[in-house]
Amino acid sequence: MRDLPDPNRLRLLVDVAHHGSIAGAARANGITASAVSQQITTLERECGVPLLERLPRGVALTAAGEVLAERGRGLVRLLEATRGDIDGFDDHLVGRVRIGTIASAAQALVLPALTHLRRLHPDIDAIVTVAEPHSSLAALHEGRIDLALVDVYEHAPMPIPPRVSATTVHREPLVLIGREPFPEGTTLSDLADAPWVMPPPEAACGQSVRYACRQAGFEPQVRWETDDLQLLSRAVAAGQGVTLLPQLAIDVDRPGLHTAIPAGVRLGREIRAAVRSGERNRPLLRAVTEALQSA
Fold it and tell me: What global pTM score does this model have?
């Protein structure tokens, strides 16, 4: 009877499958491509079948490799949940936590939260990746990160995947941003003839703002479209139009920007910390979530 596959090698195979290359898996794990290749070769020897097909550019999983990678994803999630259960018996927070976060929350929430935690628990090792919500949730599902920080806008619902638990860590309004001060009581309909800059319609923020404008009786005249919320602030300061953005996304240090809460409408977003349901009681993840709520 052959030995069971090594879990650490299985994790590497899962990463190779996701990145499509040994080099990508090596970067994700902070080791050399040679080390990954050696571990995969050992895993193939343990299993007794080829798992990778070496191509001129990258690699492809064999049929056996696909089956093992899929089983490996489930095993990795199970081991992480088990680790969380064991950690629950120890008040000392230690270990690695991998976080995927939206850009606007990285500076305002993640940095102060991790700074506070590291001061109290210096053995915490955090790895942070800035990514869009759908990418972070996919990485969470595949076991490549431990916590996904995502945003949910009014009128643009985002379904949370099964077996994922989400906790709201921050709420904020969407605010008007313009180059000139807004008169008191400005409504969205007052800006029907103004040029607008905003995220594209497929982005949650863009969906929410367009919905609000249509409810106010007009289709916004969009002059700039970009997912870069900081760039939208700069476009407003340059006189390209007005916009409606979450408070955390505003480039507050940029001169020439004026803000106001639009009258007659309540628009906002929530930032949520999502973890795999089996790990929601893991002390390290609970501590990170609580630190984000306090940031």
Answer: 0.73
